[in-house]
Amino acid sequence: MANKGPAYGMSRDVQSKIEKKYDDELEDRLVEWIVAQCGAAVGRPERGRLGFQVWLKNGIVLSRLVNSLYPDGAKPVKIPDSPPTMVFKQMEQIAQFLKAAEDYGVVKTDVFQTVDLFEAKDMAAVQRTLVALGSLAVTKNDGHYHGDPNWFMKKAQEHKREFTESQLKEGKNVIGLQMGSNKGASQAGMSYGRPRQIIS
Fold it and tell me: Where are the stretches annotated Disordered (predicted)?
């Protein structure tokens, strides 16, 4: 961040629009969930966008969060004994979290980029990823989610239907209303203009 100067003109406008997408109420809910999921040992951030960024920046809290959604012995992210201090190690830790989140089921479009968090470029994207992760955890309902299930919306789930062979055959005899009806159909009264004139 030492080589990043102040933003002017259009760059500043774009950055301010991105910063306006950040939701302070959502931050409170996400902090409550992360603490409920990982335990009080992860601490709490200072309120606000930058406090939230500093709390998550080294990737340890995020790694603990995604690991808590898996059973013991199947943890996807290796967490070092002491938090990483070198920049590339911190970014690597964040990248491991992002890969584990995708493996858990978060779609690629909901996953933030490492610089969005590390340089606080788009903290709203970080919030989106955490909300998607929370929604998946609530939807899976496998006993690993901790906290209030109302904090996140459940994702739509497949509702598979089974039909017997006779039900499938009956369905072939029904003309759907989308196809219209052919009752009383005839060409009586239809004309397509004057008949063809043959001039010799």
Answer: 179-200
